[in-house]
Design goal:
One of its GO terms (molecular function) is iron ion binding. The protein has 536 residues and is α+β, with helices and mostly antiparallel strands. It has a single domain (59-530), classed as Cytochrome p450. It has 21 helices and 14 strands. It is globular. The structure holds protoporphyrin IX containing FE. The site of protoporphyrin IX containing FE has 23 residues, from helix 14 and helix 21.
């Protein structure tokens, strides 16, 4: 078709150029309107063109990940997800390309090894990004190589060998309680209230220092958060949780080279990172002769020594950087998680007089029939002989699991079927322990409530429930530190319960909980009496 040129004052132009020109000047004149139009169209496209449009959820979430950012900043992601599933049903759209699933069966599939659901870029934000550890490594093949090396020192047998150091840390904990009681008696304490939650936190950290580096961080010794190290970790986890929802933002913030020039934000200055770096240099040169052992130490094989050995065996696959990253990462992954689990245990047990009385009865009876010792520490096997205690621990991990944010995986290239629904490649599927563990079909119609007896009623039922517990994740990414966590919990809690009587200082008051990745808790304050109870 012939195009007729248009005549203008300056000559002639083609109609196409004329139309483009008119549109451009309209945009220039009304650019704000234009921008809003583009944004609205983009949002509508994300909301309605996606195959996930059929799933209900918060309106904002259907077109922007900002809803997830908002949810994480509230620190209530775990509770919000329970509410979301109650409101919208078993599958909820929580981002343009992401759904949260409430079904424990689907979660098992999602987390199973070999099903090719990979970790998302959320984990890449956790430091150190330049040398990911086992938790943050999202390349599955590299993760598998690192985990093979690290599995050895984390085995239950290896952890049992470190039991004496856990015992020493428990003794220190008991001394701190005695100091508190003595100070209360002689009047030098302003208040008889003991912050059990804080001390459980110090304990979990100090155990990790001993296990990872043969060094205590000194939290129990000083009875405080030395150098604000715990606060630093909690702040860092809060950052990871929020920025991890839109990982691209990390390049503007922590991965921005300018970040390092702000000393308070430079993580190299943090106590735990400093200690990990010092410990690396204390053990140099890495050679077969000293096999990573601390040169001035007592010859014990701590986590760092075992990791150095792993490095010496296969330096290509497990570099020096990996030794640092895995040992350092253990402190981040293992401290708040273990502390939170113990705090939840005490909070639930002490909030329910019936449960606490029954637990005390079991422990007193076990002392009387000598299945646990009357003084000193308990072994792993001894604490396993306390079925009601084990039921309370399981129940605490069910009702209040330590991880509060979602565990999210990517659908593999071939797409997938979950819970009878098809999801295409690249869709993000999220599960949350707080939601999964309240599934009534699995845990009973009273799943919302803390009732330890459910684990003791019928053996088959308990086994079935156990298959759907996700407090330690699952599959190839199952928690590598669970043996250590369970060992220390099984040693310290029965000892505390055997030796002391606890009473909540503020009965009925909720413990404060803020989900960063782990649920960080505060406010577990108690009165303590020595058993058998002495009355003044
Ligand atoms: C009761 C205490 C603990 C709980 C509830 C817990 C929970 C979890 C969960 C749910 C995951 C899976 C996260 C995911 O897939 O996104 C995980 C992974 C991990 N945990 Fe723990 N954890 C605990 C203690 C520890 C300890 C003591 C350590 C180390 C000393 C540790 C180190 C790790 C590591 C390295 C991973 C990553 C594993 C992988 O991706 O292969 N955790 N933990």
């Amino acid at each position: 078709m012939a195009v007729t040129p248009l005549e203008t004052k300056t000559g002639t132009v083609s109609p196409t150029r004329a139309i483009v020109g008119t549109v451009m000047s309209a945009i220039a004149a009304h650019w704000i309107l234009f921008l809003v139009g583009v944004l609205v169209s983009r949002c509508m496209y994300k909301r309605y063109a996606s195959p996930l449009r059929q799933y209900p959820g918060p309106f904002l979430a259907s077109f922007t990940r900002l809803w997830k950012v908002y949810s994480t900043t509230t620190g209530r992601t775990h509770l919000q997800h329970i509410e979301l599933h109650r409101k919208y049903g078993p599958i909820v759209r929580i981002a343009p390309n992401e759904v949260s699933i409430a079904s424990p069966e689907a979660a098992r599939n999602l987390l199973s090894a070999g099903k090719r659901f990979h970790k998302t870029d959320f984990y890449g934000v956790f430091p150190p990004p330049e040398n990911p550890d086992i938790f943050t490594e999202i390349r599955e093949d590299v993760h598998a190589q690192k985990k093979r090396v690290a599995n050895v020192p984390y085995s239950m047998a290896a952890m049992q060998q470190l039991s004496p150091f856990i015992n020493d840390t428990i003794e220190l904990f008991m001394r701190r309680i005695e100091d508190h009681r003595a100070a209360t008696k002689n009047g030098s304490n302003k208040s008889p209230i003991f912050d059990l939650g804080a001390y459980l936190h110090y304990f979990a950290f100090d155990v990790l220092g001993e296990v990872a580096f043969s060094r205590s961080f000194g939290f129990l010794a000083e009875g405080r958060d030395v150098d604000g190290a715990i606060k630093t970790i909690d702040n860092s986890q809060a950052y990871n949780g929020i920025v991890g929802q839109i990982p691209e933002v990390d390049f503007l913030l922590r991965r921005n080279p300018l970040w390092k020039f702000i000393p308070a934000l430079n993580t190299k200055n943090a106590l735990i990172t400093r200690m990990a770096l010092e410990e690396m240099s204390n053990r140099r040169p890495f050679d077969k002769e000293n096999a990573g052992l601390l040169r001035t130490g007592d010859g014990r094989r701590d986590l760092m020594a075992s990791l150095i050995q792993g490095h010496l065996k296969d330096p290509e696959r497990f570099s020096e950087g990996d030794v640092f990253a895995v040992a350092h990462g253990a402190i981040f992954a293992g401290s708040d998680s273990t502390a939170s689990t113990m705090q939840s245990f005490f909070w639930h047990v002490l909030s329910d007089r019936r449960v606490y009385a029954k637990l005390n009865e079991e422990i007193d009876q076990a002392v009387a029939n000598e299945s646990i010792p009357s003084t000193g520490n308990l072994s792993w096997n001894e604490s396993q002989s306390l079925p009601y205690f084990q039921a309370c621990l399981r129940e605490a991990m069910r009702v209040r699991p330590a991880v509060g944010l979602n565990i999210t995986r990517l659908v593999p290239p071939e797409g997938t079927e979950l819970d009878g629904h098809h999801f295409k490649a690249g869709t993000r599927i999220a599960v949350n322990g707080w939601v999964l563990h309240r599934d009534q079909a699995t845990f009973g119609s009273d799943a919302d409530f803390f009732r330890p007896e459910r684990w003791l009623e019928d053996e088959e039922g308990a086994k079935r429930m156990d298959r759907f517990m996700f407090q330690f994740g699952g599959g190839s990414h199952v928690c590598i530190g669970r043996n250590l966590a369970l060992l220390e919990i099984n040693k310290v809690i029965p000892r505390l319960l055997r030796d002391y009587h606890f009473e909540l200082a503020h009965p009925g008051r909720e413990i404060k909980a803020f989900a960063t990745f782990f649920v960080v808790q505060e406010g577990l304050e108690v009165y303590i009496k020595k058993k058998p109870i002495e009355y003044p």
